[in-house]
Amino acid sequence: RICVITLAEAHPLLQSGKTIENINYQISANCSRLQNKVSGKSKRTCLFVFQMQGAQFLTELAPLCRISSSDGEEYTIYSCIRGRLIEVNENILSNPALLQEKPSTEGYIAVVLPKFEESKSITQGLLTQKEYEEVLMKRRSSAS
């Protein structure tokens, strides 16, 4: 039920050999994802139940961070999912190369917890690995 936000394999930062210069969780003058402070209890039964206070609510189009590369390009990374922001990965601030070297593990961007009642419809809407690869092939063939 927890969603870990990472860079997709096909993201330009992972494909083009670019160097990441900066990662900024400051979304606007009044909104920093670094100020997301989750507090509360988690109780263990057969499911984890979180009682959270202070977690920022995200929509699918909510920006999580901005990543600048050495060639001057800037990429805004969006949540792509509705839910509560549980944590951002502060380790990538001091070691941005983690995004490229270990994008699906230590180089994750954030962790989001969708509403329980929405989690089933979210997972049903996800692509399989094969479907994702087909989308990428179509993009590449239309770009050539």
From TrEMBL:
Top-rank taxon, per record: Eukaryota
Similarity comment text for this entry: Belongs to the ABITRAM family.
Protein's recorded name: Protein Abitram
The keyword Nucleus appears for this protein: yes
GO molecular-function terms, A-Z: actin filament binding; actin monomer binding
Any single GO CC term annotated in Swiss-Prot or TrEMBL for this entry: growth cone
Keywords: Cell projection, Nucleus
Pfam families per UniProt: GCV_H
InterPro entries: Abitram, GCV_H/Fam206, Single_hybrid_motif
Cell location: Cell projection, Dendrite; Cell projection, Growth cone; Cell projection, Lamellipodium; Nucleus speckle
GO biological process: dendrite morphogenesis; regulation of actin filament polymerization; regulation of filopodium assembly
Species of origin: Urocynchramus pylzowi
